[in-house]
Design goal:
Blueprint (H helix, E strand, L loop, with lengths): L42 E5 L3 H16 L13 E6 L4 H8 L2 H10 L4 E6 L7 H7 L5 E2 L8 H4 L15 E4 L2 E4 L4 H10 L10 E5 L1 E2 L10 H5 L3 E2 L2 H13 L4 E5 L37 H9 L12 E5 L8 H9 L6 E3 L7 H7 L5 H14 L4 E8 L6 H14 L3 E6 L17 H24 L5 E10 L26 E7 L4 E6 L7 E9 L4 E5 L2
Parallel strand pairs: 1-2, 2-3, 3-4, 7-10, 10-11, 12-13, 13-14, 17-19
Antiparallel strand pairs: 5-6, 8-9, 15-16, 15-18, 16-17, 18-19
Bound molecules: S-adenosylmethionine (SAM), iron/sulfur cluster and FE3-S4 cluster.
The site of FE3-S4 cluster (F3S) has 13 residues, from helix 1 and helix 7.
Length: about 550
């Protein structure tokens, strides 16, 4: 049996002894049955942040599994912990910083344990500070270096890509790595079956890496670099595989999926794609594939009986700047594209939007909402909001509340502004006090909770298609987690062969129901019996 203990990583770290895992006792005649993978590190991937990070983690876990490593159920039993971090707000970074002590204690108990930090907290411009902030980490990898994980750990097999040339780009005063290599390695991972998908029902499908926008508050362009689209045919090929494997739902991913394709070469077959961007700076998309063409191509993948091979298609995130009429038409006309759009607005006041560098006004955003609702009646709309951005006055904040009352979103993800070092907004005064940010956040959430409840109550009595994705544990406390309200009476009793199930309808509403566990992974018709601000509760329609 060859020893595959992880190497000591990075210069300056004290040498570590080989694995402290209890040695398998050499019993004559048995040693030949002891597989080599017992000596490979058991890994645990801890993922924070957005869907893109979850997708990246699936690729890293797949690469480690392909190298022969087994997954550990938790950090405590792992020899290798990969932390895929998020830097969107200071609180996200603090979650990881706050775990350094625990990780160090685990390392003291298991000197073979290695900790890798990757994701958006690792950037080209903050390399000098990482060791101080994350003392228990042995190896730091920027998001664009993730394909090198297996090789850098000394576990490289025939399938692992070797080290690749560094490419950097200047972004304002910062140097960012580019995402050039990611489309290539993604294609290899998919082709060789090296993506450890977290679900057999729903799949993430990255279509564009990085972000070319310059929202002044945002760290993402610095951590992910400029936009790089995956080739059109490769995305469609991955979707075809997912359809053939029986996936019921696929979400196309990118920081701004709406600008997909502008960096790809023009081709005659995309001659009908014209630049129709109605807001902000012109973007040359003529003759290049766009997200609308991509949705139509994936929607066009059909089963023998003519139904969409992937019944539900979603995409996230959309920047309003790049939301074209072609995309709105594709949402309206493709049967598999779900009737839901997440369209971050961030603020309802034009001065704040300008300071945020968002490139649209509240009115032009509302114009998009009208066009969407005309083209796709009943479309569900969700958004992101930042409260307490630099210089935001009470009146300007009130205009955000006004916009929420006008649009009547189905769900709002709101957060207080958190200055991010290196971003343009970090040079503006962060002048809304923390207590006032909290007050505005609570007020906004209360306004939205009432709107969400009303919009959900409109579903009561209707029948809706639910993709069942989860078996939930039985309820354990007073608050009703099903709807986010206090329960009207004692918990519903469960029929003998029933479990508590949950899933989402096409409009992305969370729906709870009781039913047989065999419904998991299926699309069922559910009659909505009651509603709370955050979820619907229903029963199987017969
Ligand atoms: N690309 C998306 C878009 O066009 O808005 C957003 C992606 S970002 C990962 C998710 C959300 O985080 C943003 O929509 C914004 O509301 C929030 N966010 C980003 N930077 C922030 C900051 N510095 N403080 C608070 N929230 C922030
Ligand atoms: Fe950040 Fe703006 Fe890019 Fe979204 S579009 S990732 S908010 S810079
Ligand atoms: Fe966080 Fe990076 Fe996503 S900062 S939200 S993990 S792109």
């Amino acid at each position: 049996m060859t020893s595959r203990a992880l190497p000591v990583l990075d210069a300056g770290m004290a040498p570590r002894p080989a694995s402290s895992r209890p040695a398998v006792r050499a019993v004559e005649g048995l040693s030949e049955f002891v597989t080599d993978d017992l000596a490979l590190p058991r890994f645990h991937v801890w993922t924070l942040g957005c869907q893109m990070n979850h997708s990246d983690s699936e690729e890293m876990a797949g690469a480690l599994a392909a190298a022969g490593c087994a997954e550990a159920p938790g950090v405590e039993s792992a020899d290798l912990v990969v932390i895929n971090s998020c830097a969107i707000r200071e609180a996200a970074e603090q979650k990881v910083i706050g775990r350094m002590g625990v990780l160090q204690r685990l390392k003291d108990a298991n000197p073979a344990l290695r900790v890798v930090l990757t994701g958006c907290s690792v950037r080209a411009d903050n390399a000098g500070q990482l060791r101080r902030r994350y003392p228990a980490v042995d190896l730091f990898l920027r998001p664009d270096e993730e394909p090198e994980l297996v090789a850098r750990l000394g576990l490289a097999g025939a399938t692992a890509p070797g080290a690749m040339a560094e490419t950097f780009q200047r972004l304002g005063r910062s140097i960012t790595a580019t995402a050039d290599r990611l489309p290539v390695t993604r294609a290899a991972s998919v082709g060789e079956g090296r993506v450890a998908r977290g679900s057999a029902i729903h799949a993430w499908l990255p279509i564009i890496y990085g972000c070319d926008k310059s929202c002044t508050y945002c760290i993402v362009p610095f951590s992910r670099g400029p936009e790089r689209s995956r080739p059109f045919d490769e995305v469609v090929a991955e979707a075809r595989r997912l359809g053939a494997a029986g996936y019921q739902e696929v979400t196309l991913l990118g920081q701004n999926v709406n600008s997909y394709g502008h960096d790809l070469p023009a081709q005659a077959r995309f001659g009908d794609v014209r630049s129709e961007r109605t807001l902000g700076r012109h973007l040359a998309i003529d003759g290049r594939p766009d997200i609308a063409a991509l949705l139509r191509a994936i929607d066009g993948l059909r089963t023998a009986d003519g139904a969409p091979a992937i019944p539900r298609l979603r995409f996230v995130t959309s920047h309003p700047w790049d939301l074209t009429d072609r995309l709105i038409a594709a949402i309206a006309e493709c049967p598999s594209v779900c009737e839901h759009l997440h369209l971050p607005v961030q603020a309802g006041d034009d001065t704040v939007l300008r300071r945020m560098g968002r490139q649209y006004s509240a009115d032009s955003y509302l114009g998009l909402i009208t066009r969407l609702r005309v083209a796709v009646p009943g479309i569900s709309l969700t958004t992101d909001v930042i409260v307490g951005f630099c210089g935001e006055t009470v009146d300007q904040f009130e205009r955000t509340l006004e916009l929420l009352r006008t649009v009547r979103y189905d769900q709002v993800f709101a957060a207080a502004f958190s200055p991010r070092p290196g971003t343009p907004a970090a040079r503006l005064p962060d002048d809304v006090p923390a207590a006032e940010k909290r007050r505005r956040l609570n007020e906004l959430l209360a306004v939205q909770e009432a709107i969400g409840l009303e919009r959900n109550q409109a579903w009561v009595g209707r029948t809706t298609e639910v993709l069942v994705e989860q078996i939930r544990p039985p309820r354990s406390h007073d608050h009703d987690p099903e709807t986010g309200t206090e329960p009207a009476g004692s918990p519903r009793p469960l029929a003998d062969d029933h479990v508590r199930l949950s899933g989402r309808n096409r409009e992305h509403r969370l729906v709870h129901l009781d039913g047989a566990s065999t419904l998991l992974g299926g699309r069922v018709q559910v009659r909505v019996d009651r509603a709370g601000p955050y979820a619907l509760v229903g029963s199987l329609a017969v």
